[in-house]
Automatic annotation (TrEMBL):
It is found in: Cytoplasm. Its main location: cytoplasm. One of its GO terms (biological process) is regulation of DNA-templated transcription. InterPro entries: Integrase-like_N (IPR017856), TACO1_YebC-like_2nd/3rd_dom (IPR048300), TACO1_YebC_N (IPR049083), Transcrip_reg_TACO1-like (IPR002876), Transcrip_reg_TACO1-like_dom3 (IPR026564), YebC-like (IPR029072). GO terms for molecular function: DNA binding. Residues 79-234 form the TACO1/YebC-like second and third domain. This is Probable transcriptional regulatory protein IR213_07850. It holds the Pfam family TACO1_YebC_N. NCBIfam families: PRK12378.1, YebC/PmpR family DNA-binding transcriptional regulator.
Length: 236
């Protein structure tokens, strides 16, 4: 198995751990998708993907419809995606993805988390190059052979396809998202969920005490409502 498989295995129990947080994140994704491409999912591939993700976390249909309707209101603030970079203690690189309607607030909060946990907030580009920006799709297994599917999807950008207990996962570079989404839809293959992740190219092994120092910073970041994802180079 490749790096995507190991990365997913390490993060599996941590992602979307709090249902309320998951709903908040989906709500922000809906606003950004509607502001970008309109409220019709048939004509808006990004919104279509977010609706699929809402089903994956059991978000009620009425919540999704309400969020789409709210996003079409001109008075509804849009969210801007902002990436923060820096270092946790013990030389661990940290990438923080946020979606914010108040950049000053988010910058101040993220900086304070780094400072309080003996980390250092970096400049743009200081650690982003240490991570591969990827897209992923989860589909039902339903008798599909992952190895055959991988060979068929290589021409569309797929780099790694593997099966776990929840279905089949397809990983590809960030820029291949639309191409693979379209091909899966053309094949009438149900997309259970999809998204983007940043996979560290190299990880660093720490002692249990050192890991606790880094996890303290990560937990503070993840508690912030503006934070969507936190990635790091610590070996899990």
């Amino acid at each position: 198995m490749g790096r995507a498989f190991e990365f997913r295995k390490g993060r599996k129990m941590k992602r979307w751990s709090a249902m309320a947080k998951a709903f908040t994140r989906i709500g922000k994704d809906i606003v950004m998708a509607v502001k970008e491409g309109g409220p019709n999912p048939d004509a808006n591939s990004r919104l279509r993907a977010v609706i699929q993700n809402s089903k994956a976390v059991n978000m009620p249909k009425e919540n999704v419809e309400r969020a789409i309707k709210k996003a079409t209101d001109k008075d509804t603030a849009n969210y801007k995606e902002v990436l923060f970079e820096g270092y946790a203690p013990h030389g661990i690189a940290i990438l923080v993805e946020t979606a914010t309607d108040n950049n000053n607030r988010t910058v101040a909060n993220v900086r304070s988390y780094f400072n309080k946990c003996n980390g250092t907030m970096g400049t743009q580009g200081s650690v982003e190059f240490m991570f591969d920006h990827t897209c992923n799709f989860r589909i039902p297994a339903n008798g599909i052979d992952p190895e055959e599917l991988e060979l068929e999807l290589i021409d569309f950008g797929a780099e790694e396809v593997f099966e776990d207990e929840d279905g089949i996962l397809i990983y590809a570079p960030f820029g291949s998202f639309g191409t693979i989404q379209k091909e899966l839809e053309n094949r009438k293959i149900e997309i259970l969920s999809s998204g983007f992740e940043r996979i560290p190219q190299i990880t660093k092994k720490l002692t249990e005490v050192e890991m606790a120092d880094v996890e303290k910073l990560i937990e503070k970041m993840e508690e912030d409502d503006d934070v969507m994802n936190v990635y790091h180079t610590m070996e899990e």
